[in-house]
Amino acid sequence: MTQYFATVARGLEEIAAQELKDLGAQEVQPDFTGVYFRGNQELLYRVNLWSRLLFRVFVPVKNFPCRNGDQLYREIQKIDWRDYLTPDQTLSVHCTGTNAQLNHTHFTALQVKNAIVDQQRDQTGRRSSVDSQEADLMLNLHIHRDRAILSLDSSGSSLHRRGYRPAMGAAPLKETLASALLRLAQWTPETPLYDPLCGSGTILLEAGLQSLNIAPGLVRGEFAFERWSDFNPDLWQKLRQEALEQQRDKFPAPLWGSDRNAEIIQQARTNAQYCGLGDSIQFQVQDIEDIYPPTEPGILICNPPYGKRLGEVEELGSFYKLLGDLFKQRFTGWTAYILSGNKELTKKVGLKASRRFPVYNGSLPCTFLKYDLY
């Protein structure tokens, strides 16, 4: 079995580890903003195809001492790059982390690239070109103190870019965070779901993909591993066909979304069409004051604005109070969740949260709060 490393948003390591176990991963070990795990080539393909929480899946090639540029160059040249790359193929290198001598990621990436193409030139007289966007081989080098890990990037563009969102609102959630919120809320496709502040629909779109059991990787384009020398097209086609056969044709329970902005609701409908959900999600234009439970008790999830300036925070205080009042007065029997990036505004809800989950929306620390509405 091969060891892999998957990157994930900060705070979601544990639930990402559980997702990997559910997909068949072995020796799963959460780390900071990532998870180590083991499996075979089929698992690598399956994780890229099915993961709803991960950003990228790396295949570590070498872990080595790396104090300065000269040592980095020598260590990279010890790898026989003919196993991974021909001079006709393109290359890209992405670096993260620094140390005292290697404190500029562009220079570090250049050292890795030079070591590889110099080896190629010595062997064949030819060398690979660099393609920062669509390279045949995408490498990741991570430096921590005086060591480095060089990995192959099997995913390519981040897995959160499903490929179904041509239309986005002003501050859309990443698809991976939306799926994480659904998992933290213990939502299942058999449970009605309502988002009264749905924006361009990300939370409901992710719920819709789960409801129809659509693998998120089916919607996007090519994965990086499809350009590798050991790519197994028959295995990949088998996994894609199995995913298609496992899809459902209707939702087990309804999904609703509303927003006061008609243009934003149209964006949500467009996005639903792009990801194969058609008109299954019931989107409607509605002011927050006019919301009522659309069905028997279910789960309500919303991501209200956080307010970044003092005037905005003061103005939003009454909005958060209104949310709490509506939940309490109209949604008896429901379970409500709010993603909040502002503790002061959260207090205005006026309800006692039964659970609090720390999460990050990008780089912003947030809290996902659960309210049991009796």
TrEMBL record:
One of the Pfam families matching this protein, by short name: RlmL_1st
Domain of life of the source: Bacteria
Domain THUMP: residue ranges: 43-154
InterPro entries xrefs: RlmKL-like_Mtase, RlmKL-like_Mtase_CS, RlmL_1st, SAM-dependent_MTases_sf, THUMP_dom
Keywords annotated in UniProt: Methyltransferase, RNA-binding, Transferase
Presence of keyword NAD: no
GO molecular function list: methyltransferase activity
PROSITE patterns, alphabetized: THUMP, UPF0020
SUPFAM superfamilies registered for this protein in UniProt: S-adenosyl-L-methionine-dependent methyltransferases
An example Gene Ontology biological process: methylation
Name listed for the protein in its UniProt record: RNA methyltransferase
